[in-house]
Amino acid sequence: MMTPENPFPLSGYHGPDYFCDRKQETDALIRNITNGVNTTLLSLRRMGKTGLLFHVMETLIRQKKAQCIYLDAYTTQNLRAFTNALASAALKAFPEKKPFGKILLEWIKAMRPVISFDPVTGSPEIELDFKQPEQFEHTLSGLFAMLEKQDKRVVVIIDEFQQISNFPEKNMEARLRSLIQHLKQTRFIFAEVISTSFLICLTM
After folding, report:
1. pTM (2 decimals)?
2. 120: left (phi over 0), alpha (psi -120 to 50) or beta
3. Which residue of 124, 135, 149, 162 pairs with 130 in a disulfide if CB–CB is 3.0 to 4.6 A?
4. Domain segments of the chain as ranges
5. d(CA 181, CA 101)
């Protein structure tokens, strides 16, 4: 990671050496993950929510407590886009050179997706094209089942989670939560924008 010229960078996450404050929130989120509890993080916009999430991810990975998948749901407009984005984020977290990454890629390939690569980051981008919306929900269920087979805890962080309330599919939040409520090895952090300050809630 390049060292920023400005000793006080105002945007982006530049590593633990440039991250200050939010210790209480960081400790609370990591404690919930360690104790097997899903969490909802509610925050005003422009309060450093995403930086906090990246700091938690970096800390969990550095301490070898979990493998993390990060998804920014802000640009997804429906279940199809959300499923494709989450599959792409999973492949980014588990690259093909790793044993589980190879298994995950083969599982995704079985659904005959279009796989492209971001020209800037080189990260894989998945495009599944099912005719029935239920197939995307089934794919999410299968992806979570794959993550459950990991011998290490997996943390799925969904930023801008409030976006799913705008999906044309009905009751998406309830449908998604029904898919994850019985998972034992995979934990979630749902980050949403609200009109009050930081608030961390337990989500069973």
Report:
1. 0.84
2. alpha
3. 135
4. 21-203
5. 24
Report which residue type is found at 146: M
- Reported residue count of the chain is 204
Strands 67-72, 154-159: pairing kind: parallel
The structure tokens listed for 83 are 């499923």
Three-class DSSP category at 154: strand
Give the three-state DSSP class for 124. Answer: strand
Give me the CATH code for the 21-203 domain, please.
3.40.50.300
Nearest-angstrom CA–CA distance, 118 and 177? 30
Strand partners, 124: 117
204 residues of the chain, pLDDT tens digit each? 555 565 655 565 555 555 567 788 888 999 999 999 999 999 888 777 888 898 899 999 888 889 999 999 999 999 999 999 999 999 999 988 888 999 999 999 999 889 888 888 778 888 998 878 789 999 999 999 999 988 889 999 999 999 999 999 989 989 998 999 889 899 999 999 876 666 666 665
Q: b or e along 98-129 (b: 16 or more beta carbons within 10 Å of the residue's beta carbon)? A: eebbeebbeebeeeebeeeeeeeeeebbbebe
Alpha-carbon distance of 25 to 191, in angstroms, equals 13
